[in-house]
Amino acid sequence: MPTFSKFITSQRGAQQILDSDGYIYSRKKSGDTALTSTWRCAKYNPPTKCKCHIYLALADNSLTLGTQPHNHSADGSVPARQEVLLSLKRKAADQPLSATQNLISETLADTAAEVNQTLPNLESLARVVQRSRASSSGSAQHAKATTSEDFILPSKYSDWIADGTFYVAPKIFPQSYTIHSVVDAKCLPLI
């Protein structure tokens, strides 16, 4: 009978349960009651299609197995691999100016050889870093602070060109809107 080991985080940021036998479970969207929550094996999707479920008692974090057993063996390297990938994503977000290869090298240097063997290849790790940077590039890189001085500059020019778009706006804004003016025969952004 497995016991509750700990909560872990999936590659996409969802909460998962790691049991004492090394199996990982994801939260099932239905089936919760006031006293228990329902979790299903993380290998629920094809090709494995494991139908094993557990029920987590909310009062004491005890696990109860469902009627279906696992149809695969436990992979003990998955939690460590997920932790390495999450660490790499955090470093990419915290150090946006560091070279991608440097971040990967630093992360792999701190990781056990057994875990390194289970990680994706270097090209895939580089894509993980780049995607993490793209999704966390929020207001610090894209948004221009608008102050009262920013509105004085456009008032110096009589001709304005304004444009807005929904398609290339940063994720934190629903729309991007800019004001341009012709300065010395060049069209320059003002705001």
**What's the order of the H and E elements?**
EEEEEEHHHHHHEEE
- Overall outline: elongated
Walk across the major sheet and give the strand order.
1-2-3-4-5-6
Distance between the termini: 63 Å
Calculate Rg over CA atoms. Answer: 25 Å
Mean pLDDT: 84
Question: What is the percent of helical residues?
Answer: 25-40%
Number of helices: 6
Strand content: 15-25%
What does this structure look like?
The protein has 191 residues and is an alpha+beta fold. It contains six helices and nine strands. The strands form two sheets. Strands 1-2-3-4-5-6 form a six-stranded antiparallel beta sheet, covered by helices on one side. The chain has a three-stranded antiparallel beta sheet with strand order 7-8-9, with no helix packed on it.
